Records
---
Amino acid sequence: MCIISLHFQDHAQYKLIIAANRDEFYERPTKEAGFWDDAPELLAGRDLERMGTWLGITKQGRFAALTNYRDPTNEHPNKNSRGQIVTSFLTGGTSTTDFLKELRKRKDDYNGFNIIVGTVDELYYYGNRQTDIVKLNGGTYTVSNHLLNTPWPKVEKARTMLQKYVTTHEEIDVDALFEQLAYREIAPDESLPNTGIGMDLERKLSPIFIKTDGYGTRSSTVLLINQDNEVTFIERTYNEGSFKKENKFTFRIK
């Protein structure tokens, strides 16, 4: 997952609003979102290479979503799968704070990551390139492949669009959020970060929706949880930048 925007505890109708894109190599095998056979309470897509996930929610209201932290000089192929962090929280029963404190002790077992984790009523952010575990107050947040709310062009654009929309609309149109996730404008060179991948690739990865040769946005997810704990989870999948399929799930948190 390369960008996650959320509006939390600051809307008349919804406790939590999520709009997120997962970017990945096109050849990496992936299962569309659904309730897992081996974890029937868990709704998420699945990475079939390492069997973890990037974003999911349970029928009990546990939520987690993860992005990679871009640091090509410090990537090690033999480290633990980051997708297993999400799966471990969602299928476990440990409190969020205890889970994150234990994860922080093992932070060097993983390549760089950011995680938004908790319940629909209490969310936290942690990234293993910093030390603090941050409780999220009400408001709008975006994380991509650096720290939370790092002012990269795509992060600023995604957060601004989501904040403007949800603070001016009592009813949320999921198509409007998917339109935000489909934003493909390339940022100007002078505003791009330098993460060690070269200017050409920085440019190609600067849109909210990415399409390059061999790599890009594989799925977009909109998650809405209203004040009555009714969940709407919609995933749209893509094949090399072209729309493929939509899956929609609704349930009430137990």
Note: Helices lie at 83-91, 96-105, 153-166, 174-181, 199-204.
---
Amino acid sequence: MCLIHFNIQGHPNYNLIVAANRDEFYKRPTEKAHFWPDAPHLLAGRDLVQKGTWLGITKEGRFAALTNIRDLSLEGKDKKSRGAIVRGFLTSTDSPVDYLTKISQEKDTYAGFNILVGNSQELFHYNNIEDKIVQVTPGTHSLSNASLNTPWPKVIKGKKMLGDYFRQSDKIKTEHLFQILENNEQAQDSHLPNTGIGLEMERQLSASFIKTPEYGTRSATVLLIDRNNQVIFKERTYKKGILVGEEEFSFSIPTSTA
């Protein structure tokens, strides 16, 4: 997962709004969003190499999502799968802070990552570079491949587009959020970060929706949880930039667990 725009407890009609893109190599085998047979309460896509995931929610309302940190010095073949961090929270009963405390104790066994965990009432952010557990403040935020709200072009653009839309509409339409995620406009060179991957790749990765010959946006997810704890989860899947499928799920979070 490389881009997560979200609003927590900042909209009059929704507890949580999430619009997120997963960028990955096209050749990496993946399952589209589904309730997992080995964890029937868990709704998420699945990486078929390491069996983890990048974003998911449970029927009880536990939510988690992850992005990689773009720092080549943190990579290594001996590192553990970052997708296991999301899976671990969604299959555990630990509180968000307790879970992140455990993750922080083994932070160096993973390549760079950001993780959001919690539910529609509260979210916590952690990454293994800053090594701080922080409760996310109410409002609109964005997370790409640096830290939370680091002002990369796609972060600035996405937050503005979401903010403008929220001010215009009390009823959120998933189609509009997908349009934001599918924006393929690249940033100006003067606005690009320098993460050590070269100028041309920085340009290509600066768009919200990425399409390169070998790597790009594989899926886009929109998650809405309204004030009555009704969940709408939609995922679009792409093949080399072309939309090839859409899944939709809806359910209610029990009041006792919301």
Note: The domain at 3-252 is CATH 3.60.60.10 (Penicillin V Acylase; Chain A).
---
Amino acid sequence: MHNHHVVKQMVKNNKEKQEKKGKGSYIEWWQLSLIGIGSIMGAGFFLGTGLSIKTAGPSILIGYLIAGLTTFFVFNALGEMSVNDPEPGSFRAYASKAYGRSMGFTSGWMYWLSGLLIMSSEIVALSTFMQFWFPHVPLWIFSILFAILGFGINFLGVSNFGKIESLFAVVKIATLVIFILFGALVLFGVIHDKDVITSHHTVLGNMFPNGMKGLWSALIFIFFTFGGIVVVGIASSELKSKKDIPKAGVGLIITLVAMYLFSLFFVLNMVSWTEIDESESPFVTALSAFHIPYMDSIFNIIIISAAFSTMVGALFSISHVMVSLAKSGDAPKALKDKNSRGVAWKALLLTAAGLAVSIVFSFLLPNTVYEYITTAAGVMLILNWVIILASHLKLHPSYSKNKGTFKAFGYPITSIAGIVFILLAISGALFHANERIGLLISLGMIVVIFICYKVIFRHRHEKTNV
């Protein structure tokens, strides 16, 4: 009898320890919002918006409204599916349920491959930014250091990853808030410099200097700056309460769109859009007339933190997608293993090998060829949004029957409108020679992934089922 009570108490204690251990690996909804901001707001915004402004002029503000609205529609759909049917595989699991295993396979590997290529481009960019201070240090040394640091953060576990990504997000939000406040003071004449010629008439006057075609062709670049939104859907599996997913997503998107729009408005107010060039951050161009000490170094640090946190977030998401692929038999089964901290270490090691190959190619291939491949990666990332929205259109009726659960706003109009906006943005790539080639390469990669399923994995599944 005594032994029975001892065993019972041991079981109880062990259960409490497991629960305590499990609680430590969860993240709060506000951390999910910050992880989203950290994963989305990268070098593509702080540096890459120069090309969008040059292409669209002040109408870039309308472009960001369209992209922000579309991002909300995508999260609206993903949020409903995540709350009503929590799946560790997130979007690829829903694609599988809606349109069969081949769609889940294609979606998952599209995301993994695009994430891998985007990570390699972020690491090359990070290394280039570091040469601003250390011009004689070879790029490959910085690439190895950033890769090791990024993998190290992911190996710390979900909870620590959430804290670090939240910190990076706070840095980026604080940067834009300070810039917006500074821009407001310039707008109202509190701060003035003799070299500054404000151009607010350009912002509100000639919105379409390059016509509607200018905005249309810039949409693809604008959409790229929202590309990391799917990370929120994947990371939502680590939330304490799945009901907090809509709260986290809405807070994230409102904050992000407001930051983007206000900061770009003040950039265009401080400097004429014609003076902005893709070779320099538009924020540096806007602030250059104020002769702020060490401004180049300050923004270099900000761009490095932005690119690094985006890379870390991408690594987290593609390793989790790989686990989902492994669990469903669409990747080697061994890749689903996790350690005591919930880290998919085998999936991370595979990603490390893939990243190493990708970085080597980035140094060996001519710049134009590498640009085609990274553009293709961005296009695949956005095309995955179409799969998410299409999956939502198919699965929503089954979720709508459940009372008391999260209902997506505006179904089916929002999902249909989202698909139209995404296809509109991607078609804008046809106006640019490099982006046009990148679009064709992305379609080629998708065909190759689908053929791999038909030739290799479908045969394996059929053999297993016999």
Note: The chain has 19 helices and no strands.
